[in-house]
Amino acid sequence: MWGGRKLSSSGSRFLGAHRSPFRGTQADCPRLTTSAAYSKNQLSWTLQIKPSVFSEYRSMCFKSYSMTFACLNRMKSYSLPWTRPYSTSRTTVDSSEVKTFLALAHRWWDEQGVYAPLHSMNDLRVPFIRDNLLKTVADHQPGKPLSGMKILDVGCGGGLLTEPLGRLGASVIGIDPVDENIKTAQHHKSFDPVLDKRIEYRACSLEKIVEETAETFDAVVASEVVEHVIDLEMFIQCCCQVLKPGGSLFITTINKTQLSYALGIVFSEQIAGIVPKGTHTWEKFVSPEKLESILESNGLSVQTVAGMLYNPFSGYWHWSKNTSLNYAAHAVKSSIQEHPAPAEFALKEETEEVRIETSTNSGVHEELKK
Amino acid sequence: MRYRAFRRMQVWDACSEALIMFDKDNLDDMGCIVENNVIMHALTKQLEAVSDRVTVLYKSKAVSYTWPYPFSMADSSPWVHITLGDGSILQTKLLIGADGHNSGVRQAAGIQNVSWNYDQSAVVATLHLSEATENNVAWQRFLPSGPIALLPLSDTLSSLVWSTSHEHAAELVSMDEEKFVDAVNSAFWSDANHTDFIDSAGSMLQYAVAFLKPTKISARQLPPSVARVDAKSRILFPLGLGHAAEYVRPRLALIGDAAHRVHPLAGQGANMGFGDISSLLHHLRTAAFNGKDLGSMSHLTAYETDRQRHNTALLAATDLLKRLYSTSAAPLVLLRTWGLQATNAVSPLKEQIMAFASK
């Protein structure tokens, strides 16, 4: 069951390497980093999916067999019971968590439910995307400002951000590794004939799409995703590959500061329960400086970084000058064809991150926290 | 075309000399009285202009509604379904209920409605003035039985709105035209309800006001006299107050009288409806530009908060005024006489009142 199963669905944890149909998934191992991690539209919602997912964000170009072994070794060394590969004991899967996930998979569209903060984040991120994309066109149709644009929503979850973008006229492809999420998203858009035509959902990983959709998107949106990704470098490279020259990348994520630990983890998860426990791992948070450096080194020029603040009492988000909690970034792929810097030369100035480099030939960086 | 911009409004009491005069400093137009037919005609013209995007189904009736579940359930449609009289079904992301104070939409949605009937009915008629005048003043006098208002429509025509007890209203509608005209004239002119006590109390305050603000003395003017009434233009309808506890539900919004019903004494009923429309439009426009689902509660509740704040205040004030002026008991008459005179003397307060009414 570990084997040919696609990631996700039914919220169970899949330990990786066995997803044979998936190429390039050798590197499943790193998924094991603990907690929540997971690549979707998030804030929570994903306790369930602990391991798994990340591997997808690994670019196939950088597969490394040696890494796999390293991975497996590492896997064994982490004494997380559920991470043992080839284990047939499904006891590691916490059935109550699976249930939570299953229940949550249907709650995407409950605007007052678990995902309420994500729904209200649309008030910031949709105008952010819309206005920055409008700057690149001369004029637009009044009713459909984004018509004619092709957008990729990575980690679309239940389609919370995908649908508004579709309504604004864009053709959107939403991808998410969790089948259940895609099912929910498909179901929700099926009632609206207009959206049905404009949006396409696929349960797959970014790397699967990279091959067939190189340089076809006007914009890539990765909202609340990069703080769940194991290999940020790889992720950004894939995003860059699918973007047209001059295309835009939009990212919203959480900063790695003491404040984000105090408010984002301690307060939100453990005290106030705004975000389910274990959803986020502070070590995976990305500071805007680090994100900028990765973006710039991959040929994406950063246009805007803006802070976002959530008011848990009113349920509304606000723009802020302060990026120490949540922030949004907009970067543009340079129009001159520039190959993204090979991973070996990727910048590593932020030494505060613990980065473990595996074998030199691959240059793939894993960030294994802990 | 019967509509007229007015520049001044005089409101006075039948039981005393107190009056309040509203006008703009430079005698600009304060507002406009527009006959209902004129509005309907204008709307029809506008609808024809956008007939490629708007379909009007005349002579149709909604028979039943199916509301969506709170969130996406397995197979149920998340939209509102409306069954029409001819059996066809429409589905929509947002249903706007604008069907009057007996709103079927509101009842079908099960929204609580706070309401009570007043012991008054309103008589409306179109009156011909004895002589053509500039006719740009709106007149309203509070009789103990209810307010009577004369609103200009043209140089020779004015509209009458007379709220009075049910029996008197029935009498007025059925009495012959001459008697009716006499009744109207005497309602405006007769001082039968004055008492000496109130008169002297009133003039006391008037001297005080004149002392403090010598320039602001308004002398009571009399409205133009009425010569005839348009045949068959006399109608009556009962009055009441109503307020829906919720203006919105998922995929449903109530506007106009479906959401609130008010006494005509302040002439604000239709205006509140227009305000509702303007607010809802603003919120829907922003939501659409953000790609939101139009039936989503987030912006609908913003509309509700916006309008409930405004409408509740106006409803409460109008109800209070109605009760205050429905009596000829001396203490209350004294209270309202002094209150009216004092308000008349304070221009900023009057400007605030005018501004609030124009929202």
From TrEMBL, chain A:
S-adenosyl-L-methionine binds at residues 125, 155, 176, 223. One of its GO terms (molecular function) is metal ion binding. Component of a multi-subunit COQ enzyme complex, composed of at least COQ3, COQ4, COQ5, COQ6, COQ7 and COQ9. SUPFAM superfamilies: S-adenosyl-L-methionine-dependent methyltransferases. NCBIfam families: UbiG. GO terms for cellular component: extrinsic component of mitochondrial inner membrane. Its EC number is 2.1.1.64, 2.1.1.-, 2.1.1.114. It is found in: Mitochondrion inner membrane. It comes from Tursiops truncatus (Atlantic bottle-nosed dolphin). This is Ubiquinone biosynthesis O-methyltransferase, mitochondrial. Pfam families: Methyltransf_23 (PF13489). Its cofactor is Mg(2+). O-methyltransferase required for two non-consecutive steps during ubiquinone biosynthesis. Catalyzes the 2 O-methylation of 3,4-dihydroxy-5-(all-trans-decaprenyl)benzoic acid into 4-hydroxy-3-methoxy-5-(all-trans-decaprenyl)benzoic acid. Also catalyzes the last step of ubiquinone biosynthesis by mediating methylation of 3-demethylubiquinone into ubiquinone. Also able to mediate the methylation of 3-demethylubiquinol-10 into ubiquinol-10. It is an enzyme of class 2 (transferase). Pathway: Cofactor biosynthesis; ubiquinone biosynthesis. Mg(2+) binds at residues 224, 227-228. GO terms for biological process: methylation. Its main location: mitochondrion.
